[in-house]
Every structure is written in C-alpha cells, then in structure tokens.
Design a protein that fits this description.
By secondary structure, the protein is an alpha/beta fold. It has one domain: Glutaredoxin (3-Layer(aba) Sandwich), CATH 3.40.30. Helix content is 27%, strand content 30%. The chain is built from 5 helices and 9 strands; from the N terminus they run ββαβαβααβαββββ. A 5-stranded mixed sheet has the order 5-4-3-8-9. The chain has a two-stranded antiparallel sheet with strand order 1-2. A hairpin with a 2-residue loop joins strand 1 and strand 2. The radius of gyration is 14 Å and the shape is globular.
C-alpha cells in the first residue's frame, strides 16, 4: 500500500557517493526534527526526469528555503555513481539539491511507489512523487498518475509548494 499524508516514513537506508567514498543515511536520520521536500522519480538520465522534474526543483529551491524547507532531496532507484554523475550533469548538485540513491528499491518499495516496465528494463523503479516531510511524517503528498508526465509533482503545480505560508512558485 502506498504511503499517505499523515503517515510516518518507514526507515530505510539511502546512499550517495561523497567526496571520500560511499555514504549512507537512514530516512529517520535524514528527517528527524526537520522539514524537507522529498521527491522521487523513475530514473536518472531519463527524459522527463532530466528535462522537467529535477530542473523544476532547481528553479524553485530558494522559494522553498524561504518558506522553511531545510533541504530538497531527490531519490531515484539508481546506484550511487549514476546519481552523482546525474547531479553534476544536470547542475542539481551545484544548485543545492541532495541526490540520494535507493539502489535496491528498499525505500521506494517500502512506501509503495515502486513499479516495473519490463520493456524498458525498469524493475522496482519509483513512481514520480513529491512530498513535504516534517519530522519523518508526510504532511503533503502528490503522485503522478500518468507516466512520462511531470505535472502535479513539480513545484509549480504541486501541493508541495502550497504549504502554510507558501504561495505557488
């Protein structure tokens, strides 16, 4: 069953390639006492993810920070090397977005956002979603229902920017 507004995020481990090698963090450690935007997408270097979803959060990052969001985190079912390279290639890392890998789809599956598209070689991939998380609890959530589209999950139309005190960006 997919995660819903009001649910506590399940604890899982995310990974990324840091300056000194691989790094791990639990969802609990990443979200404890913090207000974040967490968004997931099908894959690094895929067309819609690279041309629409990630750039939309890069453009609106400052507006989120001004409204009390402490960090914007991108999660994808890819390995740490791919996520690092994708963050550099898109400019997301330089823009201040955190790019975390969920290589075995542990977190993605635990929140019920996983899907497969065999013909594309997508197994355990993430649906496109965006959520506001406060102290580990999902306070707002949007999930795309149409594949290959980035509409309700990008900041310009997502409930993620309609948090109290936020105007649409």
């Amino acid at each position: 069953m997919a995660i819903s507004q009001g649910d506590k995020l399940p604890d899982a481990v995310l990974r990324r390639m840091g300056d000194n090698g691989p790094e791990e963090i639990t969802i609990d450690a990443l979200t404890a006492g913090r207000k974040i935007v967490l968004f997931g997408l099908p894959g690094a270097f895929t067309p819609t993810c690279s041309s629409a979803h990630v750039p939309s959060f890069m453009r609106t990052k400052d507006a989120f920070l001004e409204k009390g969001i402490e960090e914007i985190i991108c999660v994808s079912v890819n390995d740490v090397h791919i996520m690092r390279q994708w963050g550099e290639a898109t400019g997301a890392t330089a823009a201040g977005l955190s790019m975390w890998a969920d290589p075995a789809s542990e977190f993605t599956t635990a929140i019920g956002m996983n899907f497969d598209v065999e013909v594309l070689g997508f197994y355990g991939r993430s649906s496109r979603y965006a959520m506001i998380v406060e102290n580990g609890v999902v306070t707002q959530l949007n999930q795309e229902t149409e594949r290959g589209v980035c509409g309700i999950c990008r900041p310009v139309s997502s409930v993620a920017v309609r948090v109290p005190g936020c105007a649409e960006v």
